[in-house]
Amino acid sequence: MALKTIAGVELKVSEDGYLDDMSQWNEEIAKEIAKEIGIELTPKHFEVLNHLREKTAAKEGLTIRSVGKSGIIDVKGLYVLFPKGPLKFSSKIAGIPKPTSCI
Fold it and tell me: Is residue 10 part of a domain?
């Protein structure tokens, strides 16, 4: 684990940059992580991020397909919001651990 200052808060992150403790996440941290990736967050992004956080807290596995079936967004829309790695980047921005399905 490494330490990284995000939105003025020193946080433990994995070698891939995922937060070690998802309880330390907030919208300002999400915005700064997204900015580093090159994504400007909209209310729709936050709908997806909050869904991912809820599923992770409930210990449910995440896949692109399961997010696409959530009723919040379809798979194509997920790729539009989070290009070049929709589950990888959405998970990082949501402050949850890297999904096992991501390489």
Answer: no
Residues 33, 39, 73, 102: which is the catalytic one? 102
| Residue 103 included in any domain | no
Q: 0.70 cut: is pTM over it? A: yes
Reading phi first (left if > 0) and then psi (alpha if -120 to 50, else beta), residue 25 is in: beta
Task: Grade residue 84 by pLDDT with cuts at 50, 70 and 90.
Answer: confident
- Does residue 102 carry a catalytic annotation? yes
Q: Does any domain span residue 21?
A: no
Burial class of 7 by CB neighbour count within 10 A (0 to 12, 13 to 18, 19+)? middle
Separation CA 82–CA 1 (nearest Å): 25
Using one digit for the tens of pLDDT, what is the confidence trace for 9-54?
999 999 889 999 999 999 999 999 999 999 999 999 999 999 999 9
d(C-alpha 52, C-alpha 81), whole Å: 14
Could you tell me the residue range of the domain that residue 56 belongs to? Answer: 26-94
One-letter amino acid at 98 equals K
